[in-house]
Fold each of these.
Amino acid sequence: MKKRILIVAGARPNFVKIAPLMYEFGRHKRLFEVVLVHTGQHYDFEMSDVFFQNLKITKPDIHLNVGSVSHAVQTAKIMIAFEHAILEQKPDLVIVVGDVNSTLACSLVASKLNIRIAHVEAGLRSFDRTMPEEINRMVTDSLSDYLFVSEKNGLRNLKREGIDPNKIYFVGNVMIDTLSANLSIINESDILSRLRLTCNEYSVVTLHRPSNVDSAETIAEVFDILRAVSRVVKMVYPIHPRTRKMIRKHKFSSKFEELGNLLLINPLSYIDFIKLVKESKFVITDSGGIQEETTSLGVPCLTMRENTERPVTIEEGTNYLVGRSKTKVLSFVKKIINGKSKNGSIPELWDGKSAKRIVKIISMIQ
Ligand code: UD1
């Protein structure tokens, strides 16, 4: 009998992670029946639909349409709607990816209904519980039956937490599967000419974490750093809706717009964004996935956070933690411009075959 697999995605980075899984399950239609659930945590065309188009993901079978509300309300709304979906679909396994509220909410529901859970990107820890994602990661991992780990630090974290080693599988990074599978299309993107940019002569900024953008004080610090960097190198900033909202709320819009060397643009599609990153001199970010994508592409990355749940990107990759220290940022920018930043290497199993490994393991589940 075919295994019935329910895959959950809700927010922008989830779509990049489910794409190779959907593809792999699609190659094994004899073994699996897959139901894709979109929670609706992200809903704007440029935060959701364009990723389905770019990555050729089939339309969701079920859409929960939860939208943006507070953490508790969002989690609760997803749980209520997802319980209906599970009771109707009766899956053998629920797959959740990453660390967003949709990941947490759907894991809670599945575990209460005694449905087995697979967590893709398990074991990552920032050890910073002020990050909503850290809570989501810890709870999801503790409820999961199959923990698919992307970097070896994840294995150590799960071991320390006493998770049964028989549940843990080191499979590599599905985000890098998506990157490898789309490289030739990425190379063809015309985003540089559309933005009138020259290869290797600009940097990319993406900042959207509450710790950086939710208060006037932190936005002021971020603004001060970006202003200083923009004096040295042209910057492009595809701006997340949360950040746009916060910049407006704290009355920083005109300040950002007045920076001559900082180009504020709407969020980009996956293909255009990766092309922009690939050809850039360096990236400044607080995203999780972008720390990994820059490591895979060999592009220097300055992460504006005090910690990372993805330490392999620092130990082996091209990533540096800079917090909101202007001195650190400027000193790394200088290093990078002088060609003195680390080259980095590709972490183990970031080889474009992670989804294959995951699907193989799932095919062996009784
Ligand atoms: C969420 C994830 C975060 C991830 C990020 C990627 C959680 C706790 N956070 O953060 O881990 O890095 O997605 O983008 O799950 N909004 C829109 N349109 C949309 C979606 C959001 O305008 O399509 C605006 C809304 O004003 C919303 C705000 O962005 O209130 C924040 O959205 P939300 O999903 O709550 O969190 P993110 O900051 O996007």
Amino acid sequence: MAVDDLSKLVSLCKRRGFVFQSSEIYGGINSCWDYGPLGVELKRNIKDLWWKEMTCRSDIVGIDSSILMHPRVWEASGHVENFTDPLVDCKKCRQRFREDAIDEKGKCPACGGELTDARSFNLMFKTFMGPVEDAASTVFLRPETAQGIYVNFLNVQTTMRMRVPFGIAQIGKAFRNEITPGNFIFRTREFEQMEMQFFVKPGEDDKWMEYWMNTRMDFYRRHGITEGKLRFHQHGEGELAHYAKVAYDIQYEFPIGWQEFEGIHNRTDFDLKRHMEYSGKNLNYTDEISGEKYIPYIIETSAGCDRFLLVSLVDSYWEDTENERIVMKFHKDLAPVKLAILPLMKKEPLVAYAKEIYDNVYNETDFNMQIDFTGSIGKRYRRQDEIGTPYCVTIDFESLEDKKVTVRDRDLMTQERIPVESLVKYLKDNFRNQN
Ligand code: ATP
């Protein structure tokens, strides 16, 4: 059975060290979460896969820009003026809501009370730079990583001698003072984005938009996300952002319904034009071969790292009632622990032999591994299933004699006895030949 309720995942994540509530011993802080030892491995795997996918090609390079930027950036980007949500308050219970998220306009979804008229609420977090807290020292925590790429467009293009079409990728934190955060890590006020901005010649934007839509959807399919739970949603007139010509979301069918986890946008030349206007700097691109000069169009792929992490948790969760176990069927590249080494008993020389095998596999693969001595083998398998470890290697007393170990497969639950000297090759082959 797949996960039908996010609370089951929240509890598994806490129980097994994926995600903890932030500042829990103080009663927690709304919508903030901490990644535990397994969550951080999963997140790192997601970021590594995305980074490799984007930058292991000659037409995309990466950057890491700062979270605090010149305040004028957010005027140029349109965030000061437009990055607002309509906020309504309930006159009775005083709860706040996003007006566009309420089904029955005018009525409080919590208590049925009367709502105030909507006010625009800017979602950017403000802070002060330096010791004086006044308007002149106000800066914002970036609400998206994209602007750090736009303002560095020419720096990157000239230093790396990039020719259009080319892209710049970045992974980093973004902050939004969301009115109604919630649903675990789905909507938080601090989150991580994986964004890639692809600069193209005007007129070639439609072609590249299609290319990136296909490439991004393919990325999720290749990493094991259930085909029937993925779809595109095109932004209609009312939804389209002020900068966009065309926009599509990649959506996943969460237990809370179909929701976006990546946006692909044709942002036209809006961003570079605006930064030219507000900074007074010339951001025109000159093609060094053809000599053409123009302001490139931008196709953006903007994925939420935490949101995709939630997709991967939801999509992997499986209650296997037949075998009385919960299995996280992570794609092997995403699995936070790749291999568990399980000596049958905590006794020498089994323990020493298990450690020797552990070191050997680690040196040859750099897998994140666990070695577990406690409980029955059945219990230990269940523990590994629940954190999605693709393989367990059991070492018994016979192993000391015949130099063979038992490899147990998470999904098939099959057990195969193989010579220990071929273990690394066996693992490498199986990790390579997934799907
Ligand atoms: P929404 O309409 O849900 O507020 P958005 O359309 O504003 O989202 P984008 O600005 O396109 O989102 O952001 C790109 C991606 O960043 C989203 O697809 C999502 O994965 C992620 N993201 C945006 N806001 C949040 C948030 N508050 N918490 C977690 N992830 C977020």
